[in-house]
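Ligand-bound model needed. zinc ion.
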Amino acid sequence: MNVVVCPRPGTLLIEQRPVPTPAPGEVLIRVRRVGMCGTDMHIFRGVQPYLTYPRVMGHEVSGEVAAAPAGSKLRPGDPVYVVPYLSCGKCNACRKHKPNCCQALEVLGVHRDGALVQYLCLPERFVFSAHGITLDEAAMVEFLAIGAHAVSRGDVTADQHVLVCGSGPIGIACALFSKLRGASVTVVDIRSERLSLCRDQLGIERAFRVDADMDARLLATTDGNMFDVVFDATGNPEAMQRGFSYIAHGGTYVLVSVVNADITFSDPEFHKREARLLASRNATAGDFEFVIECIRAGKIPVAHLRTHSAPLAELPAKLADWIKPESRVIKAVVEC
Ligand SMILES: [Zn+2]
Ligand SMILES: [Zn+2]
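Prediction:
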């Protein structure tokens, strides 16, 4: 089968490998769609901290069951998606129903070879039916689930002002799920084209460019109170630090981004607000299921988010272009 391998940063090659044989309890998946993610771009550029090369990327996966283990509810030909956070099932976090932050977590396509292949074997507990949505939609559930998870971490409610810093796919997902909860949502970013997408096609009420007037606009938007819930999805340490100044008294700050840096903040400012600071890592199977319900119900404008696609064999030629800001990629989907 064809496999797209990243042997070292900056290079992608097509290699031939044998079709894998499923171990007992594993599903053999014929991969059909793989969404490309910020994580994949980081791996390709060599800035993902916990990674060894060569690596097969790809963790936003949909496909069809090629072979199911004995006794499985899945049948050959069934459309499926994958929860790519391969948790151990045994550690303290897993036992407390938080497999998304398992102590021994392996993410498909990051810590072990991923889905830019034609066939993939995975234990059945990470493979779920994708009935009622398209394969393209099923490959876009993962980043949406990360946003849905962050919004549930932040306990967003209808009477709140929500600020989302960063309008990449995950920031957009945080904004969309906050809006579904009825909150008044503002997105800020440095990229004007993303802000117009948020306003014109995704129905986000306010999308402001980061500039000298922005803080005044944020204050005006919230009657001088700032935001009940702030999400950071910038991947930028300075922006993450600045986000503390947008928290309302009694508010919550959810760090969805992860950066390889220390983040500091003013304790008196944090304390007088009685602010809550939360990390939000990955998503749970329940978040994936919720996203799929929302897609089925037509509540997520998935078609506006899938901006680019290419067949697997063309990915090595395409990826370097997709990374460039002028290509205006929101979500690119590889067709296997
Ligand atoms: Zn992803
Ligand atoms: Zn675990």
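The longest strand covers residues 26-36.
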